[in-house]
From TrEMBL:
Residues 1-17 form the signal peptide. The keyword Signal applies. Residues 21-211 form the VWFA domain. The lineage of its organism: Bacteria, Pseudomonadati, Pseudomonadota, Alphaproteobacteria, Rhodobacterales. InterPro entries: DUF1194 (IPR010607), VWF_A (IPR002035), vWFA_dom_sf (IPR036465). It comes from Cereibacter changlensis. This is DUF1194 domain-containing protein. Keywords: Signal. Gene3D superfamilies: von Willebrand factor, type A domain. It comes from the Bacteria.
């Protein structure tokens, strides 16, 4: 906390209360190839660089962190919490997101473990009024099988879970249904991306919705 206050003073900004701690949990399981991984990190970086997104991040002094996750025991905090105190801070975070190396390859999809790991990260931002996990995934849980318990733990702790479901092209939406029924918390929502090419649009719209500014 003292470090955050000092940073705000150094940047010439008054220290304000953190409105939202937003943790972005990115699926890098075996079904995500190298090109699709690049689309996710570049899409996230592009969304953060958009003036409309940057404005709501700075206005709310939002704290951001990024987790990469895949199978059992394979979760990593790849970008620790950082307060979005200025446009320069947001740009720096976006640049770091764009150049993120992949933490794991060729692994299963342990959604519940990803949520449990993400929940443990919020102790570092206890002063933020809202705590939100923004999880993306292109498949249902096929390892660990703890998603129900993890969602219950999030609800008990007052942490919201929203999701981006990455679907194949076409009318069916099994991943969206999985996240809607079993992953998001009460009052949460699922944004559907039709293929990884649609991920940049979805992450932008999702961040704006989470921060209570409708996307155009």
């Amino acid at each position: 906390m003292l470090r955050c206050l000092a940073l705000a003073l150094c940047l010439g900004h008054p220290a304000r209360a953190c409105e939202t701690a937003l943790l972005l949990a990115i699926d890098i399981s075996g079904s995500i190839d190298a090109g699709e991984y690049a689309l996710q990190v570049e899409g996230l970086a592009d969304a953060l660089d958009e003036p409309e997104v940057a404005e709501v991040l700075e206005r709310g002094q939002v704290a951001l962190a990024v987790v990469q996750w895949s199978g059992v025991g394979r979760q990593a905090l790849v970008l620790p919490w950082r307060r979005m105190l200025s446009g320069a801070e947001i740009s720096h975070f976006a640049q770091a997101a764009r150049s993120l190396p992949r933490a794991f390859t060729a692994s299963d999809t342990a959604v519940g473990e990803a949520i449990g790991f993400s929940l443990a990260q919020f102790d570092a931002v206890a002063d933020c009024k809202r705590r939100v996990i923004d999880i993306s995934g292109d498949g249902p849980e096929n390892a660990g099988y703890t998603v129900g318990r993890a969602r219950s733990a999030a609800q008990a702790a007052g942490v919201e879970i929203n999701a981006i479901a990455i679907e194949d092209m076409g009318p069916s939406a099994p991943i969206t249904a999985f996240y809607s029924r079993l992953v998001v918390t009460r009052g949460g929502f699922v944004m559907t991306a039709r293929g990884l090419q649609d991920y940049p649009r979805a992450i932008r719209a999702k961040i704006l919705r989470e921060l209570e500014k409708p996307a155009s």
